[in-house]
Amino acid sequence: MRLTVRTLLAWLDSVLPAEDQKQLGEKVTASAAAQQLADRIRRVVEWSGISAPRLDGKGLAADANSVAEYLDNSLESDRLETFERICIESDMHLAEVAACHNILASMARDPAVGAPLDAASRARLLAALKHHLDSVRPDEPGRPPEAVVASGPPREHLRLQPQRTLHPYPRRASRGAWAAALSALALLAVLAVFLVRAIQGNGSREVAAGKVAAPAAVEQPAAKPQPAPEAAVPERADEKLVEEPSGEQEQATTDAQAKVEPPPAPAEPVAEPPAMTKSAPEPDQPDDSTAAATLGSTSPPVSTSSPVATSSPVATAPRVPQGDALAIAAPMPAASSAPGIAAPPAASSPDSPAVPAEVPAAAAPLSVGFVGGDGMLLHRVSEGGRSTWVPFAPGAAVAPREDVIAPPACHPEVNVRGVTIRFLPNTRAVLAVDADGAPRVEVVFGRVVARASRPDARLGVSAGGLAGTITAGLVEPVAIAVDLERFPGSDPTAEPARQRSSLIAVAGGVVWRQSQGDDQGNERTLDGIAREGMLEPRTALVWDSTQPSAATLERLAALPGWVESPQPLDKLSRGAGEALKAKVALVAPLDQALRELATDKRAENRIVAAETLAMLGEFDDLVELLCADAPGRRLEGRQWTALEAATVPLALARGANAAAKLRKAFEDRGPHGKAEQLFAMALGFSDEALANGGAQALVDALEDGDLVVRRYAIKCLCDVVQPPPSDRLRYRPDGLPDLRREGVNWWRGQLEKGLIRRPAPLPKTP
Prior knowledge:
25 helices; 41% helix; 17-stranded mixed sheet; alpha+beta; Jelly Rolls
């Protein structure tokens, strides 16, 4: 059902069938313009001061027959658009149409509304009309309502006779008009005199008012809480006992206290837990040579009492972000007597099979933290000899080792030993505790941001080839990212994906110490940086799997947008995240809830469910959604592109196991006989494959009968050629056949010219 003014009125008055009412309600919720128009309709209908169109008016909207034909859905199509535009632009006409529709809807729902009036109801109506006429024409009191209501015996239907002039005013004599004009002139003269005097004395009055304002503010007492009876004591400690003062009273009270009361004695400073999104003022950025001298050089290691401890705010009374009670409930164990730190946990493969965690969450002997934030977090537990993914409840305890996943559209947080770790969507990580009691986060793929409230807090980090411990500086955010990349056309079963890990110091410097050895006693330090040193603000420590034995320092001109604060979600994504949490809370197990949500009517709900299942290693619903071509199930172009980019490259980069599952899903859920073609386009084409017929196959696929094949073909062509936006729009895979044919001819011309190839890389600047 299309969203028009008429259907919106029908939705507001609830006259549609249940299925159409729900479908239209979803469209209204997804459209900001529709919500604004609905609110405007409610406002103008309830506005008692709005006028009505004149009975003798001219034009389409002024004709009462036009309103009736529009509401009856019998208005000519060439006049329909004009009439709706008038209603949208004019509150008066919109109110008339909406009020008439509401009356008709009320009559349709309750036939008793149009039933004949009895004698008592007619008497009340006549009395109301008489009272209204007396209030409108006070100079003619007691005028009988027969001038408006047709006289005669009571009838079944009360008909109001339209008259242009009910009570014409008598014309005044010319002498009275002259007297009124002279009185008005005299009044204007008196007002002018008072205005001049007011302007002359304005300055002195402002000074006097300023002198009096301060005592008035002092005399006004602050609102004191009234004692509540015992029966009214709230059960919750955070429930308010008294009503808060208004804004003006609160401001006056604050001013009075600031002027009269002496300042309180300074209390002992207590370090409040900083928010994850807070960023400190930017310090002076040293040049690249300074950064290289701190961590990039191979000079002797810097002690933990380096400039981080002096440049960062020091708290005398450290506290846990969620309260002291939680800090007491999870005391830190005594440090190990062994020198150095324990070896970090073995790096988890991006495509690790479902193996039970070392310590199941249900049987964790010790809680090392808790789950915070509003976002949903999944963790893997062992149940009946097999591992499964279950949602983490907010406030739940965290075991000494947890394998967690942050689903799409969620920003969950975990507090481990006083360190708050915020996960960005589509992130997988492992939480653990080192032998010396320091928490450790191993990022398998995705992004996290860590921060602590204590200056002496430590955090172990494992991200690709980066393995070590942040020993100081966690009072400011530290960002960790692991990106998986594939070379186009590479075989995921034979060539591992490229890993690029980065550790970013945001606003304050951090002290980074590399791990001193693994379980076999082998050194794990990286070339290019010191064993321990200072990582300056706005500097990234980067490791690349193409050079696994070295790390580099990169000075960042600007921080990535995800580092300082969570990227705000649009309304549809936020609604999809809420739908995901609600579905998981109602249906168990998790995979069943996700499969049910994957068949939802709303496309954004299906997308978030398919993305989550893909992160768990199940690709059937993802492929089915990518290949959907039926009306109402097919994704829009932007939705399809975003879903494919967020899931398929990651699945291929996670290893042979995930790639095999994705290929099997194309065979089971894709178009018949085209699994090999789709999987090849999902892998991409190398330069050699393009020259050996791959370019010709991609151009031919633009004319395929299946939409998913055409979408993958144009995606691969644009990835290879990188055309400008104007040329990208020449072909739309979901467009009409004639328009698609024009785009195919243009791409064939590019093929004949030999232009379907990757552009030459730009030379790197020194």
